[in-house]
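Work Package 4 report. The design task specified in the project plan requires that, given a folded chain encoded as structure tokens, an amino acid be chosen for each position. We show below one input record used in the internal validation round.
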């Protein structure tokens, strides 16, 4: 779960990491008042859970409170990579001498954490990493040992950062550990002309599995909102693992691996998947019904493919969920179902008995994907 920039800043200050003074508002008139309190000249920054705000026009300098109100009015309501801007943060500008990039991220493949740092921070850090990888240092961090003062100094030296950044590097590690984060990133971390080290921007991704330890993030509707596609918001409210894509075949499966394979097979048949939706290994009939309701709410979907291999999730429970959804939702698009595994014969019989004119079954994944792709052309 990603946090907004202003929430990351709140965490940073709680761990002794210096940030510029700032305020968060959701109305242009509030921006004027906030700019007055911050001294007039401010940077107005869109608060969305995605990168590239600056290049999209979501970060602008305002010379005075009146300009801050006008700028906030321009930015609020913008769409940045599918994320509508509902809040802006006004921050005091600083005189920058140097910009750096620093982050800690979970390296799942290596079973450890990775410190990534560069003396060339800023908006184009991705280009730096792609064209001059030697300018970006990657230092493994043993989670059992963590980042001591000595380790922080090692990271700073490897990346060519000034020694005075080491204290901030150590504190950022404490953010990662104490907040149960999977990613902590600052871009840029700056050294001002007054030789102060400040985090000008921050990104924190917390581990959903740690909600029971991090109640303030796990239960806050402000944090958990989905500021992108409304279908993702609806799915999140139902506890579904759903990602909106740009195709026309709605896809439901049980297990991330099976769903990803289904997406590939659909694409191989010349169609585009409209979503990723995993109902999980022990999904109930209600979960199946909820998933269908979300997918059928997508106007881009022309056909739906349900691909389930029964294991923990018995195929008859999936079939009952489909029938329940058909009773609750007016089906106007064809639905192709492939059931295999535990109680598959019973599940097929349930669907046969329902005999809905828009529901048909297939015996193989490839056949089901081919039929769903064919139905999108009608």
């Amino acid at each position: 779960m990603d946090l907004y920039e202003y929430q990351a800043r709140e965490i940073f200050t709680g761990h002794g990491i210096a940030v510029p003074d700032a305020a968060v508002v959701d109305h242009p008139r509030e921006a004027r008042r906030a700019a007055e309190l911050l001294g007039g000249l401010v940077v107005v920054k869109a608060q969305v859970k995605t990168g590239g705000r600056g290049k999209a026009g979501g970060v602008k300098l305002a010379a005075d409170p009146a300009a801050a109100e006008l700028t906030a009015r321009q930015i609020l309501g913008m769409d940045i990579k599918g994320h509508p801007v509902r809040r802006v943060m006004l921050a005091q500008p600083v005189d920058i001498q140097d910009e750096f990039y620093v982050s800690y991220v979970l390296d799942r493949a290596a079973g450890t954490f990775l410190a990534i740092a560069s003396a060339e921070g800023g908006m184009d850090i991705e280009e730096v990493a792609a064209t001059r990888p030697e300018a970006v240092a990657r230092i493994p961090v043993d989670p059992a040992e963590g980042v001591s003062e000595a380790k922080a100094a090692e990271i700073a030296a490897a990346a060519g950062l000034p020694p005075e950044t080491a204290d901030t590097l150590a504190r950022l590690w404490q953010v990662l550990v104490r907040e149960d984060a999977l990613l902590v990133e600052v871009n840029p971390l700056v050294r001002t002309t007054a030789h102060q080290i400040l985090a000008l921007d921050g990104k924190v991704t917390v581990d959903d599995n740690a909600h029971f330890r991090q109640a303030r993030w796990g239960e806050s509707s402000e944090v958990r909102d989905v500021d992108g596609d409304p279908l993702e918001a609806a799915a999140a409210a139902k506890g579904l693992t759903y990602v909106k894509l740009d195709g026309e075949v709605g896809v439901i499966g049980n297990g991330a691996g099976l769903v990803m394979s289904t997406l590939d097979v659909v694409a191989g048949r010349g169609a585009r998947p409209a979503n990723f939706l995993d109902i999980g290994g022990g999904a109930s009939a209600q979960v199946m019904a909820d998933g269908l309701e979300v997918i059928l709410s997508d106007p881009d979907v022309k056909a739906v493919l349900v691909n389930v291999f029964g294991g923990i999730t018995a195929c008859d429970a999936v079939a009952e969920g489909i029938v329940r959804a058909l009773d609750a939702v007016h089906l106007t698009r064809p639905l192709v179902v492939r059931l295999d595994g535990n109680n598959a014969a019973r599940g097929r019989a349930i669907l046969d008995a329902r005999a809905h004119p828009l529901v048909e079954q297939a015996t193989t994944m490839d056949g089901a994907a081919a039929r769903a792709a064919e139905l999108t052309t009608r």
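The two ends are 39 Å apart (CA to CA). Validation will be extended to a larger panel in the next phase.
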